[in-house]
Amino acid sequence: MRLSYIARRNLASKPLQTALSVILLAFGVGMVSLMMLAERQMTAQFERNIKDIDLVLGAKGSPLQLILANVYHVDAPTGNISLAEAEKVMKNPYIESGIPLAYGDNYRSFRIVGTEYTYPAHYDAIVSEGRLWEGVFEVTLGHAVASKTDLQIGDQFFSSHGLTDETDVHKDKAFTVVGILAKSNSVIDQLILTGVESLWAVHAGHDDLEMSAEELYASREITAVLLKKRNPMAILTLPNLLRETNMQVALPAIEINRLNQQFGIGAATLRSIALLIMILSFASIFISVFENMQARRYELALMRTMGATPFTLIKLLLLEGGILSLFGTICGLIISRIGLYILASEVENKFQYNIGDLGLITPEVFLAIFAILVGLIAAALPAERTLRMDISKTLSNE
Amino acid sequence: MIEVNDLSFSYDGNSTIEFPDFKCNRGEKLLLLGDSGTGKTTLLHLLCGLLRPKSGTMNIAGVDINSLNDRQLDKFRGRELGIVFQQSHFVQSLTVAENLSLPALMSGTEMSAPELQERTLELLERLGVSHKSDAKPNDLSVGEQQRASIARALVHYPSVVFVDEPTSALDDKSTESVIQLLEDETEKAGATLIIVTHDSRLKTRYKDRVELSRLIHNPLNS
Q: Which ipTM value was assigned to this complex?
């Protein structure tokens, strides 16, 4: 029989008190850990997708919506812009390059985005099977699209109008899968890529046949352009240039910062609640050990008569606090995984983003060490009283 | 062997309780008899090293326990002494058998786990509580608890067994039975038996006895 066995038996003999301490700590650690995991993965997703995109050109409206719709593909676009007008902006001397995006259709909620080869190249996406699209109605699937829809190379499908709705199906024009991209851990994974011409062709009407080439070009629209600046002056001059048009440029970094600030208030509140629960759990461990010590004063004195030193008793009480905090921390990390799994399913269903990496991250290791240490300190405070215990008095006052 | 000389103790620094000298050889039995307030429990706690005397010497099992520091005293108490308290207290979360193993664990006795288990079961068997070895202490009757606490005091082969008021609430028949049990078991263990009691029924049984009287010296009143 070891001291740890006695500590375990002592805790088991007070199941309600033990359960309360463990549950409180588990929820405190679980909430903090869940926030760490979710924040880490969301930030990683945001940063990965924003890389090297300095400006987004699109229709006037909410700049944040423009960014969310065209960089992250989690919101509806602000509208369409003229291809001719957009090309003028792309040729601006302060702009190094631009990636046009045109979309408005989906297949099983996955967006079909008309673009150029520079788009997958921007995210270092490589073709794992088949090839990139070439002809009209040829598509290359993002990795997640391929795995979730089970579409194979050579398969054909019809697109639906809108970004999530599947009722208005374009049944006369079938897309053909010609390639599948390898996983890039970017927004590309969630998209079906094709040429811009394919999107125009899907929506082409009789009027298009009667137009001249110039008229047709002038009527062409796209949704947005992801711009990379050559000169910082672009940020200052472009908004003025676009003042009289239906277009705007938005800065992803600024909009995401603004979003983070807005989310930050909620996140800070949640974090405070989680910390409060953790503090309560430490208080609970303190009370649990203190109560145990008070209730078992005679038992502890009895152990002293059997040769236990004050340090043996402190070790025993610390073990009890340590077991409580270790168990609570482990339960908390499990709870955060369950929470993340549920959250990830929701995010995946709504936005097709994968934030379901359940691996342990470094801040969580620190959180676990912190929780166990504070749990030990909470136990050490009452345990220290055993050093000053008067055995004779305790045994006499039984 | 136990030898006590010029022993005195003070609770408040002013009044002093003085105890008579006495001596008891290894394997012998000694009765410390006294009425309430004569310092029986104080003397027991002094002999067990739970209190430090104001003056005097206490030689127990060849060791002057006054010369030991706190840590050495804890170890000495754990290895050499077995104590049966008036109220049978146990660690409630452990079984009876596990409670019996506690002295060995706490004192760091060099008994292997199988040896300890064998000794525990042997004592429980002899004292008639082996059928309750896996029970929680609360599930034992008062008599069973007393026998289990006697077993616990003997499990680690102590040199001296102190027993505090073993018969105070017992009728004559039960008193005889408990005292016989204590004498038999300490004799088997080769330990010295010291019984601290106010029960005058035991007076006739022991020729070696120390009768405590209220001898309090208060310098403020002298």
A: 0.85
- Cβ within 8 Å, pair B105-A9: no
Look up residue A260 and give its two tokens: 């983070």
Q: Which residues contact A254 (CB under 8 A, 6 or more apart)?
A: none
Q: Quick check: A15 contacting B, CB < 8 Å?
A: no
Residue B93 to residue A305, Cβ atoms within 8 A: no
* B156/A307 Cα distance (integer angstroms): 11
Q: Tell me if A302 and B87 make a contact (CB, 8 A cut-off).
A: no
Element (H, E) at A224: strand A224-229
**Chain A residues whose beta carbon lies within 8 Å of the beta carbon of residue B83:** 305
User: Phi and psi of B5, rounded to 5°?
Assistant: -135, 135
Closest-CA distance, B75 to chain A, in angstroms, reads 5
- Residue in B84, B87, B99 with CA at minimum distance from that of residue B135: B99
Residue B23 bridge partners (DSSP): B3
- Confidence tier at B221 by pLDDT (50, 70, 90): very low
Q: In sequence order, what DSSP letters do the residues of A337-372 get, joined into one string?
A: HHHHHHHHHHHHHHH-------S--HHHHHHHHHHH
A192: three-class secondary structure by DSSP: strand
List chain A residues with CB under 8 Å of B87: 398
User: Which residues are bridge partners to B211 per DSSP?
Assistant: B33
User: CB-based burial of residue A14 (10 Å sphere; 0-12 exposed, 13-18 middle, 19+ buried)?
Assistant: middle
The pTM of the full predicted model, rounded to 2 decimals, is 0.72
Query: Is B216's pLDDT higher than 60?
Result: no
Distance CA A375, CA A202 (A): 63
